[in-house]
Amino acid sequence: MNFLASPTIVTAMAFSGKLSFNPLTDSLPLPSGEAFKFEPPIGQDLPANGFTPGDLSFYPSPIPEPRPETQVVISKDSQRLELLEPFTSYFPEETSNPRDLELPPLKILMRVRGKCTTDHISAAGPWLKYKGHLTNISENLLITAVNDEGGDVNVAFDHDHAPTEPPTDTIPGVAKRLKARDQPWALVVDDNYGEGSAREHAALQPRFYGCAMIIARSFARIHETNLKKQGVLPLWFADKADYTRIGSGDIVETVGLSDLLQGGTRSTIEIKVTPRNGELFTVLTRHTMSVDQLKWLRAGSALNHIRSVTV
C-alpha cells in the first residue's frame, strides 16, 4: 500500500514505529516509564512583511502586444514541422451537411479489439520526431491495434475500394482512402479505450484523417476529454454487447445529437446502423458532453470555438 503524508507526520510515525500512530492524540513511552507527547510545530505560514523581490533580472520580460502581421515561416520540405490547419466543422455554419445538426453518415473504419492504449493509437519511439508534423506522425495511426474482424494487427478493410486498390490495407492506409473520398468515419472500440499517457496526438491523428465519432464500451477519462477537444464525439454503449453488432463498412448515423446541440439535456443518443449485409437497426449510447464541450463539437474543435469568441 502507498500513503502520502507530510515530513512531520512521517517523522512522528518513524519514532513510534506504527502507521496507526496519531501524534495529536497518542504518546510514546520513555525508558523512565513516563509518556512523551509531540507538540505541533509552530511557525509563520507566510512572512509577516512579505517576500523580498529577489533579483529583478530573473523576472520574465513584459508580454509584447500581439502583432497579427507576424508570420511563422516553415519550410515546405520540412519533415518535422508543418503548420496546422483548423479542423472543419460537420455542421451547417461551415459545411453543407444535409443532416443539419446531426453528424453526417459515417462509415465504420474498424472494430478495435481489446486493450488499446494511447501508444496503440499513436506510437512513440522514433515517431516522436514527427510530433510537429501531423501529416507524417498520422502514418502511425493505430498501427499496433487489433482488428476484431479477423484478429490481425494493423489491418483494415476497404469495402468500397477501387478496382486498382487491394481490399485491405494498413489502418492508416484505409483511413487515408476515406479522407480522400471525403467520407467521414467512426470507430467501434473496446473497454478503457485510450488508457495510458495522455498524448494529444492520439486524438489529433484520427481527427486529421476524418474520424468524427468513436463508440466505446468505455473510455479512459483523459483521452475521452482530448477527443472532445478535437471535435470527435465519444459515445458509450448503453449495452456493451452491442459492440459486436457493428462492423467495418457499416454506416452509422446519430439520432438526438441535434437536440443536444440546440440546448437539450438528454443523456443518450441513438445510433442508426445500416449494415453492409443485413437490416437496419439502432443501438443506444450514452454521452458525457458538457454544455461547453458541445460548443467545441459544433465548432469543429475547442480551438475553433475559442477563436470564434475571442477574435
From TrEMBL:
InterPro entries associated with the record: Aconitase/3IPM_dehydase_swvl, Aconitase/IPM_isomerase, Aconitase_4Fe-4S_dom, AconitaseA/IPMdHydase_ssu_swvl
One Pfam family from the record: Aconitase_C
SUPFAM superfamilies assigned to the protein according to its UniProt record, in alphabetical order: Aconitase iron-sulfur domain, LeuD/IlvD-like
Protein name: Aconitase A/isopropylmalate dehydratase small subunit swivel domain-containing protein
Molecular function via GO: 4 iron, 4 sulfur cluster binding; aconitate hydratase activity
Domain (Aconitase A/isopropylmalate dehydratase small subunit swivel) ranges: 107-239
Region forming the signal peptide: none
Gene Ontology cellular-component annotations: cytosol; mitochondrion
